[in-house]
Amino acid sequence: MSNHLNRRQFLGRTMASGAVLTAGLKAAAQAETSAEPVVVGVVGMNRGKALALDFLQAPGCRIKYVCDVDQNRLAEGKDAIGKASGHVPEAVTDFRRILDDPEVEAMAFALPIHWHAPAAILACKAGKHVYVEKPCCHNPREGELLVEAARKYNRVVQMGAQRRSSAVIMEGMTKLLEGAIGRTYYARGWYAALRGTMGRGEDGTPPEHLDYDLWQGPAPRRPYRSNVIHYNWHWVWRYGTGEAGNNGTHMFDLARWGLGVEYPKRVTAAGGRYRYDDDQETPDTEMYSYDFDGGKTFTWEGLSCNQPGPEGMFVGITFYGENGSLIVGHDRYLLRDANGKEMENKAGDVGGVDHVINFFNAIRSENPSSLNCEIETGYKSALLAHLGNIAHRTGHALRCGEKGHILDDAEAQTLWQRDYEPGWEPTV
Ligand SMILES: NC(=O)c1ccc[n+]([C@@H]2O[C@H](COP(=O)([O-])OP(=O)(O)OC[C@H]3O[C@@H](n4cnc5c(N)ncnc54)[C@H](O)[C@@H]3O)[C@@H](O)[C@H]2O)c1
Prior knowledge:
- This protein has 13 helices and 17 strands.
- By secondary structure, the protein is an alpha/beta fold.
- The chain folds into two domains: 3-164 and 354-374, Rossmann fold, CATH 3.40.50.720; 166-203 and 207-349 and 381-416, Dihydrodipicolinate Reductase, domain 2 (2-Layer Sandwich).
- The strands form three sheets. Strands 16-15-14-13-7-12-11-10-17 form a nine-stranded mixed beta sheet, covered by helices on one side.
- Strand 5, helix 7 and strand 6 (157-159) form a beta-alpha-beta unit.
- Nicotinamide-adenine-dinucleotide (NAD) binds at residues 43-47, 67-70, 73, 95, 110-113, 115, 133-134, 160, 162, 214-215, 217, 230-231, 246.
- Residues 43-47, 67-70, 73, 95, 110-113, 115, 133-134, 160, 162, 214-215, 217, 230-231, 246 line the site of nicotinamide-adenine-dinucleotide.
């Protein structure tokens, strides 16, 4: 645990035992605690660059490091964050260097998904708090390990499901949970885009500016392929989780929140890679369905190569209840009565900066349970993507038991975890 954190903890504890402090000392301690910036390292300079700019909008943040295994992206990230903050961060290719710096209190990871849980676990072990992008894990076992690490090392770990911190979406969800549409029993979530083909790649030599070995990290080694890096790894099972894990995780999270459910008891999948004939392994057209105890069902429709989605929205979820429906879109909610008449329609901010502020507040108050998407919540939502993908990949209808574990299906159970490059297996 860092000296920096010890100082924050010391101040917090001494403030709590007011008897030992004069009023003046208490005020000084309080001022230092609130003024003291959270020192952060941000890893992965695509989404991570945008995330870093959100971090800088939250009061009391200093980005000491940026990190990427691609030198071009690293230079761009360093430049953008230096300009935005007036403080040029150190640029490194191996995030383990940042873990060694005791001044760094928190890490943010926006990486290919096969890296999320292994990196976040290493950070917890090094005493850092973690903001990890969605989905927080490449497979269910890694999610379980990450939750275990957060508990064991008592770290504040937030998943990047920023709608959990969006004022307008919180308002809509509160209305839903307070009964605006009566008993809610069905939700349909979707994402619709016009993605192109990833084509057919060729094995070859990685570009000089990329540390391909470190890019692969925990994934078993394979030759560099020309059409996977960047971004298209989403469509390759070895690294990604398809559209379900990519954009779906946001909707799975809203579904669980609005329906008030945790683990499904039955999962089915339909769909395939229909639009293009290329290297993509994950479906571009997917319908996953989830039955929960208490008579509640959620369906997910991922359309990677078609628009528009339902309601003319590219992303959204409709909750259906006895007395109407509530739609949550990208940054809005819409309430309708049972006849479809619009009762409310409100737009706002999607919640990016507020989610970061929530993360920093939880660090300052040393209270992980004050997080809006604490890692156990995040994992349960990511798990829905994984279970849908497992149902798709096996072609089986899954029955799930305690904590979503798959029952009586040896083939599906093999996909609960993955193989690792030797030496890279995550341990808590
Ligand atoms: N919450 C959101 O709204 C939101 C939005 C976009 C992306 N995301 C998530 O962010 C993650 C990243 O997405 P992206 O679009 O930036 O992907 P990307 O492939 O474009 O970028 C990933 C970056 O990570 C770098 N990288 C890979 N391994 C690394 C390592 N070991 N150390 C340092 N850098 C490494 C890559 O070189 C690349 O620059 C994904 O999980 C995605 O789902 C979340």
